[in-house]
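Wait, mind explaining this?

_____
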Amino acid sequence: MQLSLFSISYAGFWGQDVLELPAFLSRAASLGYETVMLAGKRPHLSPLDMNEEAILELRKELEANAISCSVLAAYTDLSPPRAAEVPYLEMQVAYVESLAQIAQAVGASIVRVFTAYEVDGHGPASIWTNVVRSLQEMCDRAAAHDVTVAVQNHHDIGVHTDALLELLHDIDRPNCKLGADAWSPALRGEDLHEAGLKMAPHAAITTNADYVRLPRYHYQPELINYQRAEPDMVRAVKFGEGFIDYEAFFQGLVEGGFNGVANYEMCSPVRGGGAISNLDDYARTYVTWMQENVSP
């Protein structure tokens, strides 16, 4: 597996210190990563900013740091638009097509996407149909740039492994693959070995982070007691220190034949705070854990 660092980890969205793209590439290389996944939005790689000059500069930075870019991450939501007159889904397709063009120019072969959230007033089946049609068009347009679309199990539609495989079947495009995430099935109680084994033959990437569960309670003064609140809060910790059974998940992926890009991400508040030194420590821990626990 190619070990990859996701630039969102240093983008500042959850209180982290921010690294601009050139500094991030240098940092990823120094931490032992061979490739990167770049967030397809500011402050890193927005299509609005990636003209020919910016693309050339990115290619030079990648070469100078002896690191590759394998994946661009699109932030999509294919839910029904609130206003029917707004061509929202067309905008999503255009966004992914733009990232596919940039991916080809910088040597990346994958664009990661999300599906859709369920929306009140719209049946899950109709949202499913919109997701399928939108992803089909995304895949067709990405294919013109030799790019694979990897669907991550993140949003509501197709979030369970069985549902995600059914969605992949409906999309029916050779360049549509999966972005296998253990965080989502772990939180929802799926068997991680089984999930990894099922997704592996269809997966292009996996994106990983570890968490602890923090139980929540509401005080009931009339009872002088507490009532259990659901769901738990979760917080990111160093890889291997959380509740997610990554040994089982990666065992399933390896047994299923996965040998793609294994991304590490910090996309939430992390224990120890968002200083660069702490983020670096987390990123190094992932490399060490993968080298010690996952067969090449």
Summary: The radius of gyration is 19 Å.
